[in-house]
From TrEMBL:
InterPro entries, per database record: Integrase_cat-core, RNaseH-like_sf, RNaseH_sf, Transposase-Integrase, Transposase_IS30-like
Classification via PANTHER family: TRANSPOSASE, TRANSPOSASE INSI FOR INSERTION SEQUENCE ELEMENT IS30A-RELATED
Domain Integrase catalytic stretches: 245-418
Organism: Sphaerochaeta halotolerans
Protein name in UniProt: IS30 family transposase
Entry's Gene Ontology BP terms: DNA integration; transposition
GO cellular component: cytosol
């Protein structure tokens, strides 16, 4: 399809320019300055005191910063035309990849814009026509299409809701799913509005939630899959091999019954720091218990588990801790000491051990340790962390709405499983 000749009158944008004026060279002229726009530097636009134009009639055009998914503005289209034609003092550039870096847009966005804005200029001599990008035609086409655009996003109509979402993500470190569950629980939805998880992700990616980006989400909006290790798996310790994870009942693997736990230690990577955390997570409810211990020795781990038993009492502990699965760390080598009660000297639980270098066999525990690292990054000196701060992390994890629990919280599911709603256990109460 051909269009009639479209004469571009630069006088609309460049008051002192004539239509046949050409820049004599593509190099920077004396007096020209680099204009920095964020991480972009555009060469060839002189800066005069009046900031209106220069002696050649060129006018400074400033690119506006836009969030992901934004549309081209008239100024950006005009600048794209100058780059594409190599006119008005701009070096000629037609590669979408390079133009994408200049305009901070994707290569595909640039390609689409160029395709939609192409017109055929009729010439009086060979080759009689030339296909060029025309900003005016592209702008008219875009404005025409905007007439058929749908209503504004719902996020723009509900300021209070958007502020609450921003608060939960930035201050409470909630994921989009957890945000939705919390809004459901508190009844904070405006009348006639309830969005899904995908819509909330779209709002964040489009910049509709002030101050919130994908980087602010717990996992930066990405999930990693753990790779299993092939080959035959063996235990280095004979006693660990006798309590292999392979011998666990099938009900443990399928999470059919509550009372089966996974355990590990979280410690600082800096040399000379001895204090660490003993972490335990119940496989079905995802209930988390965190205890600070003096060091990563078998004696300290036993004392940590003994302290937990004293909080629950011997009888309730045996009901709640049917089994615990650890890794092959030397801190868990006192098998009998960990299995036997500090109160009655009888067996209080059964231990199982995962295969070496197979952290995926304790996936829930590893995932929870990653959550703890959000609050206590690697290198943190646990000697400076008070028990109250650790307790707050535990409470946050246990009251966090989980998608795998259909929006419920680990604490709620845990109490329901063991009928603890009417019992007052200090270890489970909010700090």
């Amino acid at each position: 399809m051909t269009f009639p000749i479209c004469q571009i009158e630069f006088a609309r944008n460049c008051e002192n320019a004539s239509s046949n004026m050409k820049c004599p060279t593509k190099k920077r002229e004396k007096g020209d300055k680099k204009i920095s726009h964020g991480n972009r530097v555009i060469i060839g636009l002189p800066l005069n005191q009046d900031k209106q134009g220069d002696t050649m009639g060129r006018r400074q055009l400033t690119l506006e910063k836009h969030c992901r998914g934004s549309h081209f503005t008239w100024g950006e289209r005009l600048k794209l035309q100058y780059y594409y034609a190599g006119s008005n003092g701009y070096r000629k550039e037609r590669r979408p990849t390079v133009l994408g870096k200049i305009f901070q847009k994707s290569r595909k966005t640039i390609s689409r814009e160029l395709r939609r804005g192409m017109v055929e200029h009729v010439l009086s001599e060979i080759p009689f026509s030339r296909i060029e990008y025309n900003a005016e035609h592209a702008q008219i086409d875009a404005e025409e299409k905007m007439k058929y655009k749908g209503p504004l996003p719902k996020s723009g109509k509900h300021y209070t809701l958007v502020q609450k979402i921003s608060e939960l993500i930035l201050e409470k470190q909630y994921s989009p799913y957890a945000v939705l569950m919390k809004l459901d629980e508190k009844g904070l939805w405006p009348e006639g509005l309830r969005i899904c998880e995908k819509t909330l992700y779209n709002w964040i990616e489009a910049g509709d939630i002030p101050g919130v980006t994908i980087e602010d989400l717990p996992r930066k909006g990405k999930m990693k899959r753990r790779k299993g290790h092939g080959g035959k798996k063996k235990h280095a310790n004979v006693e660990f091999a006798a309590r292999s994870i392979e011998d666990r009942p099938k009900e443990v693997l399928k999470r059919l019954k509550a009372g089966h736990w996974e355990g590990d230690t979280v410690y600082s990577s800096k040399n000379g720091q001895r204090e660490c955390l003993l972490t335990l997570v119940e496989r079905k409810s995802r209930m988390e218990l965190i205890v600070k211990i003096p060091d990563r020795t078998a004696k300290s781990v036993k004392k940590g588990l003994d302290w937990i038993e004293k909080q629950f009492g011997s009888r309730l502990f045996r009901k709640i801790f049917l089994s615990i699965t650890f890794d092959n760390g030397v801190e868990f080598s006192d098998v009998l000491g960990l299995e036997n009660s500090v109160l009655t000297r009888s067996r209080r639980t059964v231990l199982y051990f995962a295969h070496p270098y197979c952290s995926s066999e304790r996936g829930t525990n590893e995932n929870h340790n990653g959550i703890i690292r959000r609050f206590l990054p690697k290198g943190t000196d646990f000697a400076d962390i008070k028990a109250k701060s650790i307790r707050k992390i535990q409470d946050w994890m246990n009251t966090y709405p989980r998608k795998i629990l259909n929006g419920s919280t680990p604490l709620r599911v845990f109490k329901e499983e063991f009928e603890l709603e009417d019992l007052s256990i200090k270890l489970l109460e909010a700090c």
